[in-house]
Amino acid sequence: MMLIKGFLGLVTELEPVGMISGMIGAPEIVGWIGHFVIGTIAWGGGFAILHSYIPPSNAIIKGIVFGVGAWLIMMVIMMPLAGAGLFGINLGIGALAAALASMLHVVFGAVLGLVYSKEITGK
């Protein structure tokens, strides 16, 4: 989804891979690797640890709740650290609107919940 967004040139100001590589002064490939590691190891492991504490019983809904939490952490902690301000406000109103309407973390969470439930239950 991120590649499609980039290919279509949508909200180019809100580019987490570029932000990661820019924060550490590394090439863009390092940003992609960092984003992949964060999404798979950090968030995947975090979901496995928190799964039983997330209220809904449906695994996909649990994943969506987790994805929204990950999105909030990105907006409140990572964006300001990258110099983009709270919710990316320093990037302009278009980036702020896109950040608030972003479905990427919701889809990520739903897939995470589905895959995790399939792995745990074997169904």
How would you characterize this protein structure?
There is one protein chain. With 123 residues, this protein is mainly alpha-helical. The two termini are 26 Å apart. The relative contact order is 0.15. It has helices at residues 2-8, 16-24, 28-50, 59-81, 93-101, 104-121.
Helix and strand succession?
A: HHHHHH
Largest sheet properties: none
Instruction: Estimate the mean pLDDT confidence.
Output: 84
Identify the quaternary structure here. Answer: single chain
| Overall geometry | globular
Radius of gyration over C-alpha positions, nearest whole angstrom: 15 Å
**CA distance, first residue to last residue:** 26 Å
Helix percent reads over 70%
Uncertain residue segments:
none
Q: Could you outline the blueprint of secondary structure elements for this entry?
A:
Elements: H1 2-8, H2 16-24, H3 28-50, H4 59-81, H5 93-101, H6 104-121
Helix pairs in contact: 2-3, 4-6
Features:
globular; 123 residues; mainly alpha
Short description:
The chain has 123 residues and is mainly alpha-helical. The chain has helices at 2-8, 16-24, 28-50, 59-81, 93-101, 104-121. The chain starts with a helix and ends with a helix.
